[in-house]
Design a protein that fits this description.
mainly alpha, two-stranded antiparallel ribbon, 17 helices, 2 strands
Length: about 575
């Protein structure tokens, strides 16, 4: 945290947003808070305010999270509340006086010294660099302390897995699990190479990898079968599995490639299994977990059970008290006696050969392939392995000497020279035949070349013809497109004309319907006129008949009137 931030809390100084400073002196700072870092005009008041400040590693609020995780300035609560009002009044008055003084000086042509600002900026930048360096050092020191505390508190550490620690976890107060990779030393490399020479360990196995229970069980059974000379310590899988009807573990079936070795170790009592107890309820769900990493306890106990004869008088409690390990309570009861027997071997014990002198046994800690190789080559197998290697070297040297003698004998009789002369003649004849075959192949290639050239020429002709057809098709396509466009135009015209004809037809149909209506009206009128005419004619006839009757009546009346 910058030193100017400490001074900024005082009301004696000009705020960073004062406009006349930026306009008067032409100073534009990327850090506005630096402008406030002036020398106080009242040192006594400034000192009295600094008395309430203290430098601490953590803040007063335990729930507060500082992203810098470094030194911070925290202010203690003021004990005397009565002096607080007086202090505030004095501070406000001093601030007003300072502002008036600055304004008055600025009106008289007061010039602000650029060197002072430069000094402030440089000092602040230096403080920033110092703070950043101190933060880096503090972070590194926190890493070191975290690693040391985790190494002392963690009982189970994976040695071959790279370490992963997170800064976020440290901020939350969580110490991450530290894993320390272990380098393989020359003894471990030599032990692994010896087992590879004896074909006990596969060639692709790496020394810095973690060893699984499956691998260690297989290698342990192979080592015992190939190198053990005493029958009382030897476990033969074919003899151990004869008459066996129960699988020792639920997760290792007969189809498993390592079933023979794991089952033989269980039959011999080296590994606890369903065969070790008679309780049928306990026999359910017993698993070997072949793909898990072998622990220190199993690494030593399995090997010790094969190498040592446990005396019947040893009790578990005495053995546990005599081991002398700090974490002896974490060791299983079935391995206590054999571990104590191994401890009695002194410097030749399996544990000290593999892990050296230690006060913590760490029984659940995983082991590497190199450590498993050292365990397999230690104890009773150490002399057997060296003798086996010497035997192999002697056989190899004997074979080399026999080969040298046979070669010298063949050279003396000239068989080698005749053999190589014969081979030379055969190769010479073969070279002639190859030359002939080469000439024939070259001729065939020339013929094939001419054929391919003719084919290429025909292909080019066909390509030219196809190009011409493409051009013709493209021209036809353009014409068809033009015709299609014209047809579209004519079709649009036809649709317009058809629409107009439809409209005209509608109009004519309406007119025709009107004419038909008028025709029906006229026909009705004609029919009415015809009926009227017939009625008039009937009335006329009736009038004529009446007139005739009247005339006859008149004539009769006239005749009757005549004297």
């Amino acid at each position: 945290m910058r030193s100017c931030l400490i001074l900024q809390s005082s009301p004696l100084f000009i705020p960073s947003k004062t406009p006349f400073l930026n306009q008067r002196f032409g100073f534009n700072s990327p850090y506005p808070s630096l402008i406030t870092c002036f020398r106080p005009r009242n040192p006594n008041l400034f000192a009295s305010q600094l008395q309430n400040l203290e430098v601490s590693w953590v803040s007063n609020d335990p729930d507060h999270k500082d992203e810098y995780n470094g030194w911070a300035v925290s202010e203690n609560p003021v004990q005397n509340k009565k002096n607080k009002g007086t202090f505030v009044l004095v501070s406000v008055g001093a601030s007003i006086l300072a502002l008036l003084l600055v304004f008055s000086l600025s009106r008289k042509g007061f010039q602000f010294r650029s060197q002072a600002l430069r000094g402030v900026i440089l000092s602040s930048e230096n403080d920033e660099s110092i703070d950043s360096d101190s933060k880096a050092v503090d972070a590194s020191s926190v890493d070191v302390v975290t690693q040391a505390s985790s190494e002392s508190s963690s009982d189970i550490v994976d040695e071959a897995v790279p370490s992963v620690t997170s800064h976020d976890k440290r901020e939350e107060g969580y110490v991450g699990r530290i894993t320390v990779p272990v380098a393989v030393d020359s003894i471990q490399q030599e032990a692994l190479s010896m087992l590879k020479k004896l074909k006990i360990v596969e060639d692709f196995v790496k020394a810095d990898e973690l060893c699984t229970r499956r691998e260690y069980g297989r290698w342990l059974a192979r080592t015992n079968l190939l190198l053990e000379r005493k029958n009382k310590h030897k476990v033969v899988p074919s003899i151990a599995l004869s008459g066996s009807t129960i699988s020792a573990f639920d997760d290792v079936s007969v189809e498993d490639p390592d079933f023979l070795y794991i089952q033989s170790l269980a039959e011999a009592g080296i590994v606890l299994s369903k065969l070790s107890v008679d309780d049928s309820s306990w026999q359910k769900g017993v698993k070997f977990f072949p793909d898990r990493f072998i622990s220190r306890q199993d690494l030593i106990s399995w090997k010790a059970k094969l190498d040592y004869e446990v005396m019947p008088g040893l009790s578990e409690e005495i053995s546990r008290n005599s081991l002398g390990y700090m974490d002896v309570r974490e060791i299983n009861s079935d391995a206590i006696v054999v571990l104590f027997k191994d401890l009695l071997a002194g410097d030749k014990s399996i544990y000290r050969t593999v892990f050296g002198q230690a006060k913590r046994f760490q029984p659940n800690k995983p082991c590497t392939t190199a450590q498993a190789a050292v365990a397999l080559t230690s104890g009773r197998m150490e002399g057997a392995i060296h003798s086996e290697l010497l035997r192999l070297e002697a056989e190899f040297s004997t074979q080399q000497m026999a080969m040298v003698e046979i070669r010298s004998e063949l050279q003396e009789r000239g068989d080698i020279q005749r053999y190589w002369d014969k081979k030379f003649e055969e190769e010479k004849h073969r070279g002639v035949e190859v030359e002939r075959s080469y000439v024939v192949a070259v001729q065939d290639l020339d013929q094939e070349k001419t054929v391919q050239e003719n084919i290429i020429t025909e292909y080019m002709k066909e390509k030219a013809a196809i190009d011409c057809q493409k051009q013709l098709l493209s021209s036809l396509k353009e014409e068809i497109d033009d015709m299609y466009e014209r047809l579209e135009i004519e079709r649009a015209k036809y649709i317009d004309e058809q629409q107009s004809v439809q409209n005209m037809r509608g109009d004519l149909q309406a007119k025709y319907d009107g004419l038909l209506e008028q025709k029906s009206i006229l026909e009705a009128e004609i029919e009415a006129v015809r009926i009227l005419r017939s009625w008039i004619e009937d009335e006329a006839r009736k009038s004529q008949a009446r007139a005739k009757v009247l005339e006859e009546a008149a004539k009769r009346w006239r005749w009757s009137q005549q004297p």
